Amino acid sequence: FSPVLVGATLGFARTGAIDLLAALLVLGSALLVQVITNMQNDVGYTVRGGDNSGTRTGLPRATASGWLSVRNVRTGIVLAALVATALGLALVAYRGWPVLAIGVASLLAALAYMGGPRPIAYTPFGELTVFVFFGLVAVIGTDWVLTGSIGTVSLLASIAIGAMAAAALAVNNHRDVAHDRLVGRRTFAVTFGERASRRLYTLLLLGPMALVPVMALWGHTPALLLPLLLLPAALTLRRDFGRCPPGTAFNDILFRTFRLELWFAALLSAGALLGRALA
C-alpha cells in the first residue's frame, strides 16, 4: 500500500491529474503480489522443512501449523496469480507492453522468493529484492503508469520506501539468524554476521530520513519535510533494535518498523498534496 500511495500522490502533485481506475488496478496488483509472496513463503518454508528443527522464533505459519494444507495454499497462489494477471493485462491495455514486463518480473520475484531450486530467501539478497520490488519498481512504476512520466522526487521516494520495506525484512532475518544458520539459510545476517546486520538495519531505517530534505529541495516545497516528524521515532526504534534480546521480542520491532514505513508514506503523500495545494 505504501509505495502505491506515494507513487500516486507524487504523480498527482507533479501533473495535477490522476486516473482513479488505473490507480485502483495498480493497488490491487501490488497487494496481490504481496499476498502471493507471503503464501509462497509460507508453503515453500514448510515443504523445505524449515520448521522441523523447532528453533524458529518467527510468527506461526499456516501450513506448518496445520491450519491450511500445502495443496490449498498452492491453489490460492494460482488463483491470486490469475487475478493479478487479469489486472495487469488491463493495465497493459492502458499503458502498453512495459507494464507487462513490470508485472511478469514482480510475479516471478514473488514466486522465486521461497520457490525454485535456489530461493532468494536462502541467499543474502532478500533485502535487496524487497528494496527493488517494493521500492523502486512499485513507486516508480505507479508514477509512470498513472502519469506516463517519472518525477525525480518519485525516484528519491522509491529509494526511501524501498529501504524501509527492506528494513522490516532485515529485522526478520536478524531475529532468525540462529535458526537460519541451522537450516542452511544464508541470509545477509547469517552471511555477514549480526554486527553487519545491525548496521544494515540502521542504514535502511535512517537513510530515508536523510533523503527527505533532498526531496523537499528538489520538489521546491517545504511540505515534503513532513516525514522528518518521524525522526525521533526512528532513532528510538534503532536504539531498541540494538538493545532487543534475541528471539520473539524482535516481533515488536518488526511491527513498529512496518508502522513507521506506513506513517512515512502517509506523511510524504500528505506533504506532496499540501505542497500542490499551496503552490
Largest sheet entry: none
User: What is the N-to-C succession of helices and strands?
Assistant: HHHHHHHHHHH
Oligomer: single chain
Strand content: under 5%
Helix content: over 70%
Overall shape: globular
Instruction: Tell me the structural class.
Output: mainly alpha
Q: How far is the N terminus from the C terminus? A: 27 Å
Rg is: 19 Å
Low-confidence stretches: none
Number of strands: 0
Averaged pLDDT: 91
Number of DSSP helical runs: 11
How would you describe the overall organization of this protein?
By secondary structure, this protein is mostly helical. It is globular and about 55 Å long. The longest helix has 29 residues, at 250-278. The chain has helices spanning 2-15, 20-47, 70-95, 97-112, 126-147, 152-175, 177-183, 188-192, 194-219, 231-243, 250-278.
Sequence-ordered SSE layout with sheet pairings:
Layout: H1 2-15, H2 20-47, H3 70-95, H4 97-112, H5 126-147, H6 152-175, H7 177-183, H8 188-192, H9 194-219, H10 231-243, H11 250-278
Helix pairs in contact: 1-5, 1-6, 1-11, 2-3, 2-4, 2-5, 3-4, 4-5, 5-6, 6-9, 6-11, 9-10, 10-11
For the structure shown, list the relevant keywords.
279 residues, mainly alpha
Offer a quick outline of the entry.
This protein is 75% helix and 0% strand.
